[in-house]
């Protein structure tokens, strides 16, 4: 598979929200130099080590050099490469606002399965792949 210019945005495919949200933005991310894949993808275990617990699976950016970025910083990396999202990137790094952005992301991430259930969103892989 071809290597994306800026890396792979990896999401929890067992999370209904994640499995809808990230692919929805897939074309935008591809134009920005990223590709997407669920964290449950079989090829991924050959590239990086992931904890087996789905609760530890956070949005991850796998860079071409195989280093990883996780959580809110993945959004920042994507927003800074999409022209219309760049103002959101600037707000996400502004003093004070960066802490609110990080808190908002981590709070949502901890509760993503509850949000998915409440919205009736099934995970793409349902934890299997």
Any idea of the CATH topology? Glutaredoxin
Integer-rounded radius of gyration: 14 Å
**In percent, how helical is the residue content?**
40-55%
Q: Per CATH, which architecture? A: 3-Layer(aba) Sandwich
3D architecture notes:
- This protein has 129 residues and is α+β, with helices and mostly antiparallel strands.
- It has one domain (7-118): Glutaredoxin (3-Layer(aba) Sandwich), CATH 3.40.30.
- The protein has helices at 16-24, 26-31, 72-79, 86-93, 97-110, 112-119, and strands at 7-11, 34-38, 60-62, 68-70.
- The chain has a four-stranded mixed beta sheet.
- β3 (60-62) and β4 form a beta hairpin.
- Residues 125-129 have low confidence and may be disordered.
Furnish the topology, listing elements before pairings.
Layout: E1 7-11, H1 16-24, H2 26-31, E2 34-38, E3 60-62, E4 68-70, H3 72-79, H4 86-93, H5 97-110, H6 112-119
Parallel strand pairs: 1-2
Antiparallel strand pairs: 1-3, 3-4
Helix pairs in contact: 3-4
Any descriptors?
Glutaredoxin, 129 residues, 6 helices, 12% strand
What's the short story on this structure?
By secondary structure, this protein is an alpha+beta fold.
């Amino acid at each position: 598979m071809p290597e994306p210019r800026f890396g792979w945005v990896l999401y929890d495919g067992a999370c209904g929200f994640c499995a809808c949200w990230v692919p929805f933005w897939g074309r935008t991310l591809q134009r920005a130099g990223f590709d997407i894949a669920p964290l449950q993808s079989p090829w991924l275990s050959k590239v990086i080590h992931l904890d087996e617990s789905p609760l530890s699976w956070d949005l991850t950016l796998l860079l071409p050099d195989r280093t990883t970025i996780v959580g809110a910083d993945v959004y920042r990396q994507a927003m800074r490469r999409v022209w219309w999202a760049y103002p959101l990137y600037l707000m996400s790094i502004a003093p004070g606002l960066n802490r609110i952005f990080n808190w908002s992301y981590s709070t949502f991430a901890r509760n993503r399965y509850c949000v998915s259930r409440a919205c009736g969103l099934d995970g793409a892989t349902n934890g299997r792949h």
